[in-house]
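Hi W.,

Here's what went into the run:
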Amino acid sequence: MTTSVVERPAPAPDPSTTQRRSPASTTRRVTGVVVLGAVVALGIVLSLAVGAASVAWSTVVGALVDMDEELTDHLIVRELRLPRTVLGLLVGAALGAAGALMQGVTRNPLADPGLLGVNAGAAFAVVLAIWALDVDTVGSLVWFAFVGAGVASVVVYVLGSVGRGGATPVRLALAGAALAALLFALTRAVTLLDQATLDQFRFWAVGSLSGRDPAVARQIVAFVAVGLLLAMGVARQLNALALGEDAARSLGTRVNLTRLVSVLAITLLCGSAVAAAGPIGFVGLVVPHAMRVWFGPDQRWLIPASALAGAGLLLYCDTLGRVIARPGEVQVGIMTAAIGGPVFVLLVRRVRMAAL
Amino acid sequence: MTVVSDRTAVEGRPVATGGGTSPPAPLPLRGRVVRTRSWSFRVDPRAVTVCTVLAVSVVAVGLWSISVGDFPIPLVDVVATLLGNPTEESEFIVGTLRLPRMLVGIGVGAAFGMSGAIFQSLVRNPLGSPDIIGFTAGSALGAVTMIVVVDATAVGVSVGAVLGGLVTALAVYLLAWKRGVQAYRLVLVGIGIGFFVGAVIDYLITRAEINDVQRAAVWLTGSLNGRSWDEVRIVAVALAVLGPIAVLMQRQLDRLDLGDDTAAGLGVNVGRAKLVLVLTGVALAALGVAAAGPVAFVAFVSAPIARRLVNSPGACIVPAAFVGALVTVIADLAARRVLAPTELPVGIMTALIGAPYLLWLLTRQARTGAL
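Here's what came out:
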């Protein structure tokens, strides 16, 4: 019909339209990393000092340097806020790096573990494991989360790329939204079956760092580290892949191997983040875009910078969530969605979708 | 071939089950035309048949749904109760618990179905339904705000839902505007706004008192649990006022589908027609939300199913209403009985139906190059 609005996206993304930035010099990048490091350090201090009970800076230092078991403030810092801060750093770094990796490997500016349903897959697998197999330690749950995240990322990519033109941003985003809706419906159905886990799940489902056992961070740190290393390992190949599949091949990149390693890294990163803190969206969307402005499109810088900035963003969101609703707190997943939704809209407006 | 005659050919094409792929053949228009001095309309016998069958199915499933449950009531007693000869136990269970629940289900399904038909036709894309582009989430936010912040009554909640839906629709439309509104940008902006609105709802619910939380939890998935005659009244008024407007606007809607210029040439006041249609669609979805929460995907699946059944182009508002009612009633029956005695919210069931359909639609639109 002559009347229907037909959007026909170009088959191959053109990286030059999305990633054209002034070439970032090494000095600029090093400066960026230093500034980010300082921002994250400040975030750590704030996360330790700010909360339902305000603790003086000197007390924070005292608790870390010279722990006194008798003082409540020392206990708050050491037993509650330190583990929470470490967990925030790990989860944020994992999500930030995973976002950069997903945007690189799908060549899609709207890629994010939350949007593309990867977190929903991990969450469903976790809830299923709790319900059917009575698994309760994060160390075991993380394996189920890996399976869920891996399956979901492959399914979304396949569903989003069938038909003409391969995986366009619109299709991937919609496939992700549909899969996430389906999986969250199933997740809720399972939790309603078992009233006991419902209350616990309610806070886990929106993504939260509070009330986590200090052991949780220890249980996921190895997986996050391996995930980050794998991500760094494929960074150079992803740079080549940004030129298009054929160009990457002719440059000597093993395209399928690169994709496989990337999916593996995404699975490790998202799986551990979800198993530890629940599905937290939009960190992986917002952070890589912000980083690209300063660091340019080079994945070798983009991935570590996104990991650092993701850690910082999550800490600030978590701290802010503790402050704005005293004496209660707003879960960090709600905070990131409140920030990420508008950023997503801005990206949709700014980015020339058809040319992606 | 002009646009107008092309359209006539499509409307009159032979009945095919595949739908959409057969080449349009220039056949005479289907159906009878009823004429009086000042107006005329076409009655499509197939549409009438489809609507009748759907209505009978809704009643049948509804009666069945009333009769089954933890306290089963024989169908004979159900019918007797409805006809005014209740037995002692059936009066309470049917009259107070199950009948209002089923009526709310039917009404909400019809409202969502009509709203979906209007928006999918206006956006010219099946993805443009109010539950995907965030309008129902906005209505839910309005409703939750009224409950948590103002502690409002049922009427207040409805007003909040309508306002929330309108504000969200306006925001999505303005944010998607960039030298015109493209379907894909509207859909993606709507998804983003939906996430944001969802976060605000989550925030309000974690901040609320526990009694309000239980009342507000409906607005997380959409549920018919514990619906009373209050909610029946809301949807009844909504359908009585907005339904006729939607049906009357169908003709303008079909002309708008040909493009704004063609529609104007056919005598449609484009700006006014669009405004009335958007307001009607948002209000229908919002009142559905006010009564039962954002029941996912009912608006999204109803109109395409209706169009397939009737096998005609155009918005199919009335058949979509019947399909929406049937989908909701079936989903609620399943939600109540599949995992009995646990009652799932109906929104979970509709999401389990709707999400695979969305995925299928994506792969299909991708293959035909429409997305």
